[in-house]
Amino acid sequence: MKGQLDRWIWLCPALAVLLAMLVLAGWGLTWTTAFIVSVLLVCPAILIWGALQLRRSPAFPLAGAPQTRGVTLGWAAPIYDWYCPRLGLGDRFRRETLRHAGLVQGERVLDVGCGTGVLTRLAAEAVAAAGQVIGVDAAPAMIAVARERAQRAGSAARFDVAAIETLPFADASFDVVLCSAMLHHLPPDVKDMGLSSVRRVLKPGGRLVIVDLDRPANPLWWLLFAPMLLMPMTASNLRGEIPAFLRRAGFGRIEARGRWMGLLTFWIAHPDPAQGEPS
Ligand SMILES: C[S@@+](CC[C@H](N)C(=O)[O-])C[C@H]1O[C@@H](n2cnc3c(N)ncnc32)[C@H](O)[C@@H]1O
Q1: Which residue has a Cα nearest atom 16 of ligand 1?
Q2: What are the E-state strand segments in the chain?
Q3: Structural domains of the chain ordered from first start
Q4: Residues 7, 78: Cα–Cα separation, whole Å
Q5: Mean pLDDT, each 10-residue run in order, the chain (279 residues)
Q6: Do the bridges between strand 264-271 and strand 251-260 make them parallel or antiparallel, or are there none, so unpaired?
Q7: What pLDDT score was predicted for residue 173?
Q8: What residues have CB less than 8 Å from 127, skipping those under 6 apart?
Q9: Which of 10, 127, 130, 154 has the most beta carbons within 10 angstroms of its beta carbon?
Q10: How far apart are CA 60 and CA 53, in angstroms?
């Protein structure tokens, strides 16, 4: 029930604007003025609601959701595939991610924080029937959408609800782990736990493919994204600290392979045999 509510919660701001408009129009304002005032009233309310979401106590997770201090996106599940391409994360971005991943037939792949599973489904095509691809996300609503889309597309990708920091898989059981646009959802200590958990499930010769926020490449991006320096989960990305997190989690041979929109970086990292298992 809570999962269902979570899927439709995005309608609330639209209904709030509509309601406020009706009240203001009833008071004699023109429809245009009523619309502007309603948006101005509702926007701060959305910001406060968003802040409360970010601070939601992990002691009260949504039904079926694992406990995590990562910021999950269940509320965005119904609109995620609509807005991602509009933010520059469309087909070309997915193809570029797969190009860096260099998946080959027969590989076993895990996509952590898979969202609606767009990349997961493409990975399943790349490894073909001889391989296996599993997508996990801590938001049950995301996994519900991912399963629905995979079934409709006839994809062999499998989807489970799980958090990166407590992956329910055996040690050394994946050739490749994909981690697309999700590390910036984790506070620094959860990034440490999550990457250690990824290191545990990767085979010794395996690889981790990350694409995520990094130091902005130009002053305009710095200006726009500076407020994110105030949030610990995004600040560590913007300060360019992802390689340091990777080294702490027991990864070596960390290569930055390329950039996307001057804002995201593609990294490939390998478990460092010299470091053994992370503690
Ligand atoms: C921006 S989305 C990226 C989705 C997808 N990988 C993509 O490239 O479009 C980040 C996802 O990470 C998920 N997430 C947040 N914290 C998580 C955690 N601790 N474990 C697993 N997934 C998490 C969110 O629910 C969200 O679906």
Answers
A1: 70
A2: 108-112, 132-137, 158-161, 174-180, 202-213, 251-260, 264-271
A3: 2-55 (no CATH), 80-275 (3.40.50.150)
A4: 6
A5: 48 78 87 87 71 51 78 92 92 97 98 98 98 97 96 98 97 98 97 98 97 94 89 94 98 96 97 73
A6: antiparallel
A7: 98
A8: 103, 104, 105, 106, 107, 108, 109, 133
A9: 127
A10: 12
Q: What share of the chain is helix, strand, coil (3-state, %, to 5)?
A: 50, 20, 30
- Let me know how long the chain is: 279
Q: Compute and round to an integer the Cα radius of gyration of the chain.
A: 20
- Confidence (pTM): 0.81
**Which ligand 1 atom is the nearest neighbour of the CA of 72?**
25
pLDDT of residue 62: 56
CA 181 to centroid of ligand 1, rounded, Å = 7
Q: Is the minimum distance from the CB of 138 to ligand 1 under 6 angstroms?
A: yes
Supply the pLDDT for residue 1.
44
pLDDT on residue 2:
45
Instruction: Specify the pLDDT at position 52.
Output: 61
Whether residue 140 has its Cβ less than 6 Å from ligand 1:
no
